Amino acid sequence: MKKEIKLALEEMMRKYRSLVWFARSDPDNETIQPQQKIVEELFPEEITRLKNGDSNWEHGFNSGMLAGIRFALSKNLEKANQFFPDLDT
């Protein structure tokens, strides 16, 4: 895999991991509200769609992207197949 593609996939993985975490997190948990704010500031359009759009579709898309990118970045096909679609965040 080309270095540029790998770096782009790693950046996308961070984005979608953050969005999946945000969607699963408890908005009333004061302990994680600072982290939630950071994610909202980094991805305002995506968070707006999660909050105001079809949140099930948006969350499903983000989860699918995260799983697919993790699979693509795996170094071992057997383990990639074993853990796909791993969405631990």
The oligomeric status of these chains comes to single chain
Report the sheet-strand fraction.
Answer: under 5%
According to DSSP, the number of beta strands is 0
Main sheet makeup: none
Intertermini distance: 25 Å
| Arithmetic mean pLDDT | 90
Q: Give the number of domains.
A: 1
Q: Low-confidence stretches at least 5 residues in length (pLDDT < 50)?
A: none
Structural class: mainly alpha
- What radius of gyration results from the CA coordinates? 14 Å
Q: Helix count, per DSSP?
A: 5
What order do the SSEs take from the amino end to the carboxyl end, as H and E? Answer: HHHHH
Shape: globular
Provide the helix percentage. Answer: over 70%
Give a written overview of the molecule.
This protein is mainly α and 89 residues long. It has one domain (3-83). The protein is 75% helix and 0% strand. It contains five helices and no strands. The chain has helices at 3-24, 33-42, 44-52, 55-73, 77-83. Helix 1 packs antiparallel against helix 4 (55-73). The protein is globular and about 40 Å long. The mean pLDDT is 90.
